[in-house]
Structures are given as C-alpha cells and as structure tokens.
Specification:
single chain, Rossmann fold, six-stranded parallel sheet, 19 helices, binds adenosine-5'-diphosphate, binds alpha-D-glucopyranose
C-alpha cells in the first residue's frame, strides 16, 4: 500500500471558497483504494458546520515551538465518505469566520498549520510516502521538511508534490517578518530559494523544494512558463519545467449529475433534455424574479467576483448585451466593485438581469441546470470547474481560450458540426460580445444544431478517473525514486 497525505486549507464539504475545495474533496476518493491509502489534513476552523464538528474524534495533542512561543496542537479525526481526515486544532489560529484574512496574518496562520501538520504525522499511525501540498497555504511543508525535520529519521525519503491551483496567490511579505514568524534560518532567504524581489515568497519556497510540481491543466502548465501568466515566477517554472506537469481537474460526477441531482427543479439526461431541461429555466426565472419565458436565452455566471474571471470585459459591454434577447443570472461574491456592478445592472435591467451576491451551493446547482449558456471569459484560468459542471448539465460554456478553459471546451464549428461550446481568444470585450452574439444566433436560429452541441457536451467525460490515474502514475514514479 502506498500512503499519500493531502495537506490543504480547503476541502469539500468542510470549507470552501473556490475550486480548490472541490479538488481536495474529490480527488482522494478516486485514487485506486487497492494501492493507495490517501488521507487529508486540514485546519480545524471554528466556522465549520456543527454537523461535521459533532463527527470529530480526539486523536492526540502536543506542544510545538513556533513564532517564539510554545503552542498547543490538537489533532481531531473523522472518517467521512470513505476518506480519513485529520484536523489541526488551535483556536488562536483557526477560530475565525473565514479561511483567509490577508497578509501577513495568513502567513502566520498557515505557517503554523504547515509545521503542525508535519509535526503531527509521527503520532498518526500513518507514515506518508508522498505529501501532496496544495497552493501557497501548504508551500512551507517541502521547505520545513528539507530543514529541521530531517533530524528525525521518520521524515527521511518522504516525497513531496506541490500543486499550483492558482499562481496569482504566492504569500509575499518582507523577509525579516517572515523569517521571524516561520522560524527558518537565513540560508533560505536568497534569490534561488524563498527570496523574491527582496521579499520572502512562500509559494516560491514550495516550488523550489518539492520533488514534483503539478498544475491543473496542460495549457496552464505551459502558460506559466511565460511572463504574461507567470506572475513573476515564469523563470522558476522554466527552470523546473522538467518536474512540472499539467493534470486537468475532474469533477465529482455523483455530485454533479442532472439525472439524479435532488436540488434542481427537474431531472434530465442526455436523452430527454430537449423536453425536460427548460423546466429548470422557467422555475429559476420565476424564483429569481426574471421574466418567465422558456424561449429566452438565459446566460449564467457562478463565480468568485475577482479580476481573474474577466468581469471587466462584461462590465464594458453589458449595456449592449442587454439590448439583445437574453437574460443574465449572476451568483457570486468577491470584490465590491464587481458586486456593485452586477447589482447596478440588475436594478437597471430588472426582469432581464438578476444578481445574487452571496455564496449558495443549492442555487449554483439550479443555475447550472436552468441556463442555456454559461459565461466565463477569464483573464487566466488554471483549470476552471464551472465550465466542466456546465458541460455536464448541457449548459453551453462561452469561454476565453486560456488555461483549462482551452483544454476542456471545444469551440463549435458550424461546418463540421463539432464542438461543445463557444470560445474567443483575445482578452477583448468586443471579441467576447461577438462570441456571445454568435451563440445567440445558433440558439435562436438553429436550435437543432444547438441541441446537438448539448448532446456532445453532455457526452464528454470530465469525471476524475483519467486524471486520478495520472496522479497515481506520478506518485508511483516518485516512490520508485527512493
Ligand atoms: P475558482 O476556483 O477559481 O473559484 P473554479 O471554476 O475552479 O474557480 O471553481 C469554482 C467553484 O466554486 C465551482 O464549484 C463553483 O460552482 C463554485 N462557486 C463559486 N462561487 C459560488 C457561489 N457564489 N455560490 C456557490 N458556488 C460558487
Ligand atoms: C483555482 C483556479 C481554478 C481551478 C481551481 C481548482 O481556484 O482558479 O481555475 O479550477 O483552483 O484547481
């Protein structure tokens, strides 16, 4: 049996702000249980749902030096849906109402999490062959592992994988503060290690010290070697190109299944969507105060409202698009200016635009099921799960050709009658608008072709199975290097 430890800040169903949680929550379930025992370590956030807190069992506790203090580290555990979870408990660090609060406080919290997770391992009756780290919050693990932990033979030969879900977030702060908080010696704060433009950069440390690096699509793995997408680390990505690979995310096909989903208004499948899917649209229109019209094209957006998602393109042409025979439903939270922008359009175009500015899983399901198209014009997109969910629900994605969007949405070709969605290449509002309008024409004027695109979209397989195999190969290869 090969032992894998996932360490992450988010995981469905316990804590989620974005796709990271979906991936950490679903990938372990899809590894072959005959060969891999994959367990997950998370922070024990006080805001976690009481239902899950009631399922926790005390495992152990100890005291650990960190940031010039000696701190309590509790470990609680739980079996859930076939996976063994461990939760690192210290309410000074994780007693809060959201997982991220800003720098440098988050460096302090997640530095503690990394050190505590590593320190806890020998007390868990489970020695990992591979520690799989996700994003900057866990990037100190490969660094710590290389440092003082080597004094204990338990840690010898444990391999590390660093998965980059989003290169934009690196955790950068001044060297003096970071060094003092995380307690690493001067040795690590040079430009070939954690130093970055005179500051300290945690993600950089994780990338330098991990044995393998992955990101969540092939195109993004290529893009981040270039300055436009490299977020200042493109040189490092090129230097480690040999150890970097792109493995596209899957989605949980049980959770996202229009045929069995008990949250959506009406179930449908690839055979009966022509007669059944529209019922989800009219029910959604009714619920959200849109004009109820089964024929009107409804475009959905479910997203964190940040620059990454290309919302400035939408802002630029929204007035023009609202002259067309389309409706928009937006579900998201994030930057205030985008929240207000969508509120504004909902006010201006009542009956045509609705802005639901909050986080809600159930409404997300209803939107994926009820819309005709899903708009995702991202500036960059490491993978993107929303377009995969949309494909599964026969809601045609309209995307910009970047990262995972490029790898997973095949643009409609009217001559070959092929493709699963619509796409444009330049980060340009009018290019986006032209693509939306092209989709409108197909929807209104060539409905049978539109329906054939839906058939192809729903037939695509973005479940985890093939990607999980690629992770297994990576683990096997790393373990064989011992
Ligand atoms: P990212 O991780 O960059 O936010 P992804 O497309 O990978 O983007 O994943 C986003 C996930 O979060 C999807 O499962 C999407 O449905 C969900 N999501 C985003 N915003 C909301 C919201 N306001 N309410 C419910 N689900 C949301
Ligand atoms: C990040 C990326 C998104 C990706 C998700 C899961 O949040 O922004 O593109 O799908 O991580 O890997």
């Amino acid at each position: 049996m090969k032992n894998i430890f996932f360490v992450a800040s988010e995981c469905m169903p316990f804590v989620k702000t974005g796709g990271l949680a979906d991936v950490v929550g679903s990938l372990p379930k899809h590894l072959d249980k005959r060969y891999f025992d994959c367990r997950v370590i998370l922070p024990l956030f006080s805001f976690m749902n009481q239902r899950f807190k009631d399922m926790l069992r005390y495992k152990t506790h100890f005291y650990m030096d960190y940031n010039w203090n000696n701190y309590y580290v509790g470990v609680q555990e739980m079996e859930y849906d076939g996976i063994h979870y461990y939760f690192i408990d210290n309410q000074d660090f994780f007693g809060c109402d959201k997982p991220y609060a800003g720098m440098p406080y988050d460096i302090y919290r997640y530095g503690f999490f990394c050190k505590a997770a590593l320190s806890a391992m020998p007390n868990l009756d489970f020695r990992p062959d591979v520690i799989h780290c996700h994003d900057w919050q866990t990037a100190l693990i490969p660094v710590y592992l290389n440092d003082s932990f080597q004094a204990n033979p338990y840690y010898h030969n444990i391999k590390t994988v660093m998965t980059i879900h989003n290169l934009k977030f690196q955790a950068i702060w001044d060297v003096k503060t970071v060094k003092s908080i995380v307690g690493l010696p001067d040795y690590y704060f040079t430009p070939d290690k954690l130093e970055y433009k005179k500051d300290a950069n945690l993600l950089k440390g994780g990338i330098v010290y991990s044995d393998a690096i992955t990101t969540v699509s092939r195109t993004y793995a290529e893009e981040i070697k270039m300055p436009y997408y490299g977020e200042g680390l493109d040189g490092l990505m090129r230097a480690r190109a040999h150890d970097l690979r792109g493995i596209v995310n899957g989605i949980d096909y049980n959770e996202w299944n229009p045929a069995t989903d008990n949250i959506i208004y009406h179930n449908y499948d690839p055979f009966n969507f022509r007669n059944e899917k529209w019922k989800n649209k009219t029910a959604l229109q009714w619920d959200l105060g849109l004009n109820v019209d089964s024929n009107c094209m409804l475009i959905g957006i479910v997203s964190r409202l940040t620059d990454q998602k290309g919302l400035d393109l939408i802002a630029y042409v929204m007035d023009e698009l609202c002259q067309d025979a389309v409706q928009f439903v937006v579900l998201g939270t994030g930057e205030e200016r985008y929240e207000n922008m969508f509120r504004h359009y909902a006010w201006k175009y009542g009956g045509k635009v609705t802005a639901q500015i909050y986080y809600n899983e159930a409404l997300a399901h209803k939107i994926y099921a009820g819309c005709d198209a899903f708009l995702m014009p991202s500036q960059f997109e490491p993978c993107g799960l929303s377009q995969l969910i949309s494909l599964r629900f026969g809601t045609l994605p309209i995307v910009r050709e970047t990262g995972g969007l490029k790898d997973t949405v095949e643009p409609f070709n009217e001559y070959a009658n092929s493709g699963t969605g619509f796409s444009f290449s330049n980060y340009n509002a009018h290019e986006m608008m032209a693509t939306v309008r092209y989709a409108e024409r197909i929807y209104y004027d060539r409905r049978e072709q539109w329906n054939q695109i839906i058939e192809r979209a729903m037939a695509r397989d973005f479940s985890w199975w093939s990607s999980a195999l690629q992770y297994q190969e990576l683990y096997d290869w790393l373990i064989s290097q011992m």
